[in-house]
Amino acid sequence: MFASIASRYDRANTILSAGVHHLWRRRAVQRAEVRRGQRVLDCATGTGDLAIRFRDAGADVVGVDFTPQMIDLARAKAPSIRFEVADVTSLPYSSDSFDIASIAFGIRNVADPKKGIAEMARVVRPRGKVIVLEFAKPPGWLALYHKHVLPRVGGMVTGKREAYEYLQSSAAQFPSREEFIELMQRSARFDLIKWEPLTFGIAYLYVGITA
User: Fold this and answer.
1) Is the per-residue pLDDT at 121 higher than 80?
2) Residue 43: what are its φ and ψ, rounded to 5°?
């Protein structure tokens, strides 16, 4: 599914969110409090938007995704970043080898989210950060937009309406807020987990400090 929409993925994201997704990623980098020279692993990197923001903040970034077509686009967009094909549930990196591990709008697509978070925490050094940016079931009238408008417009832009029907249904069913924090706590040892809603609760940002 992701391979089929890869070439139009960026355009669809910008249209469907009215460009707000760029602000969400900027917020994630701010909350990560990344310092120049720190090592960042961006999982489910897609076409590399969050990885690029970390690079621009001065980090040494590796971006991974299990869809080769997405990685090809990311490499073309940002040749200076190291992009590799890899699955977040089985990361090919040593433990304690990164300062930050991030994933934006990808954890709900992982077959075993608990294992994915565990792997992200494993590769991060003690007192490092696991950053998760993810959609939630939107409140009020925004739920109508997600259910009826988003799949139609996404289908028009990419030619793959079923991909955006999946996005709507998966976001509505995936745990958020306290439920997602509980999932993180069951996945790995965190000293602290902070979270905040973004844009009326359309998305949530979670920051876990590893033990």
Assistant:
1) yes
2) -90, 155
pLDDT tier, 21 (very low <50, low <70, confident <90, very high otherwise): confident
Whether 130 contacts 124, CB under 8 Å: yes
Distance of CA 12 to the CA centre of its chain: 16
CA end-to-end span of the chain, whole Å?
36
Gap between the Cα atoms of 150 and 165, Å rounded: 8
Tell me, what DSSP letter sits at residue 202? Answer: T
- 160: which residues sit within 8 A by CB, 6+ positions away? 1, 4, 5, 154
- Tell me the domains of the chain and their CATH numbers: 19-137+175-210 (3.40.50.150)
Residue 46 token pair: 């897609």
DSSP per residue, 147-168:
IIIHHHHHHHHHS-HHHHHHHH
What pTM was computed for the model?
0.85
pLDDT in tens, 194-205: 999 998 888 899
Contacts 24+ apart (CB under 8 A), 90-97: 90/119, 91/41, 91/43, 91/64, 91/119, 91/120, 91/122, 91/123, 93/41, 93/62, 93/123, 94/123, 95/122, 95/123, 96/123, 96/124, 96/125, 96/126, 97/39, 97/123, 97/125
